[in-house]
Design goal:
Pfam families: FMO-like, NAD_binding_8. 30% of the residues lie in helices and 23% in strands. It is built from 14 helices and 27 strands.
Length: 494
């Protein structure tokens, strides 16, 4: 059987992969492409995670696609609603017909002579493509992070990680301990105290606190604008307003951390019972936005604490016992169910090995170009969203850039584009972010540089100008003409 060759292959059918494919459908009609998805469903995070209360931790008017705005006034949407939004988007643009499920790419090899990637897919015939788009996110789908928990083998109850949640798990009327302080933990705790199947009591056990900010479950401005203005006007205005809010909050937090810390403390104090020990449980050791801030809709976490259905304990684990957890302070937490909301394991490119002209790629030896390509790696773009704003904001910009890039290759008769590292640019960590899941893997990631185009802006306003207006043929990019005979990718792209 002959090897199938495609113009573009997109790896991953999550929010990034579906959105990028829609850009190809809209702006590069005729491009031969496929979306390869390792699992048997699209949606990525939103079809994988099934834990109680699963929802966005970014507002949906910026997490939604720019080309297909989120139409509801709901700001923090539940997981099933987001998954349905992704499904409907894929169907509307015909992307659903281009997705190949059960296709896990384990190795991608670039051949400069042939000007193409060869993708190895266990149990499938290899594919080749001229341009490879890695849209598989940056964490392992099959395994969450669990730290060493002393004595856990003695525990007689149930232990579950949110990433591998058992939908049959019955916690009704039981004592639950959720270990963690991030977005997943602050989502789980109030969710498990609600409804007919509510737990008897939920304890959030954290080693150190995070910043928690209450925002409205619905966007009041979006409601007003949608009531009085046409959708074509209301949606962009809502999105622009929310982008401005995100950028302002981040920039003010970075420049005036003590001021923002004080505001957050006052808001948290007002949301909790009188005399609550805010400084122990809601006063992190780091400054605002040095790690991602946890958003809770309508203060649901605070309301659960006020009702007495939930509590937060800030302490460290000495050991698990048969009936719960003994803490370093000597206190014992009785538990029937323990949820280890302890984070993610980072994994670039879905775990696929990258090989360039026979040499295995060592990511720490590469430098990120515009936060989307790697030095010395031809015809490959990866999608990684913002750590301080909605993921999709960056993905949309990169997808638009890819369209311009492919058009440039076609019009100029070029077959290869590879960023060439500038030896005068100093190295910096790939992500300047204090989250544990980043710091555990920072040495396994590419580097970024200290100046453009090698520095990651992590600022939508800056990137919007750079990625929409900058030349694709800048000095950092080396191009090679199309080989003869010309690969189909460059002929068809556009």
């Amino acid at each position: 059987m002959s090897t199938e060759h495609l113009d573009v292959v997109i790896v991953g059918a999550g929010l990034s992969g579906v959105g990028t494919a829609c850009h190809l459908e809209r702006d590069l009609p005729g491009t031969r492409y496929a979306v390869l998805e390792a699992r048997e469903d699209l949606g990525g995070t939103w079809s994988l995670f099934r834990y109680p209360g699963i929802r966005s931790d970014s507002d949906m008017h910026t997490l939604g696609y720019r080309f297909r705005p989120w139409s509801s006034a709901t700001a923090l949407a539940d997981g099933p609603s987001i998954l349905e939004y992704v499904r409907e988007t894929a169907q509307e643009f015909g992307v659903d017909e281009k997705i190949r499920y059960g296709h896990r790419v384990t190795r991608a090899s670039w051949d400069s002579d042939a000007q193409r990637w060869t993708l190895e897919i266990p149990g499938r015939t290899p594919l080749t493509c001229s341009f490879l788009l890695m849209c598989s996110g940056y964490y392992r789908y099959d395994q969450g992070y669990t730290p060493d928990l002393p004595g856990i083998e003695r525990f007689g109850g149930t232990v579950v990680h949110p990433q591998l949640w058992d939908p049959e798990l019955d916690y009704a009327g039981k004592r639950v301990v959720v270990i963690g302080s991030g977005a997943t933990a602050v989502t789980l705790v109030p969710a498990m105290t609600q409804g007919d199947g509510a737990a008897a009591h939920v304890t959030q056990l954290q080693r150190s606190p995070s910043y928690v900010l209450s925002i409205g479950r619905t966007d009041a401005v979006a409601e007003v604008l949608s009531r009085w203005l046409p959708k074509a006007v209301a949606d962009p205005l809502t999105r622009a307003k929310n982008i401005a809010q995100i950028i302002t909050l981040y920039q003010v937090s970075q420049r005036f951390p003590r001021f923002v810390r004080g505001l957050l403390r006052k808001a948290t104090q007002a949301a909790l019972p009188a005399g609550y020990d805010v400084d122990t449980h809601f006063n992190p050791r780091y400054d605002p936005w040095d790690q991602r801030m946890c958003m809770v809709p309508d203060g649901d976490l605070f309301r659960a604490i006020r009702r007495g259905d939930a509590e937060i304990v800030t302490d460290t684990i000495e050991t698990f016992t048969e009936t719960g957890i003994r803490l370093a302070s000597g206190r014992e937490l009785e538990a029937d169910v323990v949820v280890t909301a302890t984070g993610l394991n980072l994994q670039m490119f879905g775990g696929a090995e990258l090989v360039v002209d026979g040499e295995a790629l060592h990511l720490p030896d590469t430098m990120a170009y515009k936060g989307m390509m790697l030095s010395g790696v031809p015809n490959l773009v990866y999608m990684i969203g913002y750590t301080n704003a909605s993921w999709t904001l960056k993905v949309d910009l990169v997808a638009e850039y890819v369209v311009r890039f492919l058009r440039h290759l076609r019009r100029s008769g070029l077959g290869v584009a590879v960023p060439e590292r500038d030896p005068s640019v100093e190295e910096a960590p790939f992500l300047d972010f204090g989250a544990g899941y980043v710091q555990r893997s920072i040495d396994e990631l590419p580097k970024q540089g200290t100046r453009a185009p090698w520095r990651l802006a992590m600022n939508y306003a800056v990137d919007a100008v750079s990625l929409r207006r900058s030349r694709v043929d800048d000095e950092a990019m080396r191009f090679v003409p199309v080989a003869t005979p010309a690969p189909a990718a460059v002929r068809a792209a556009g």
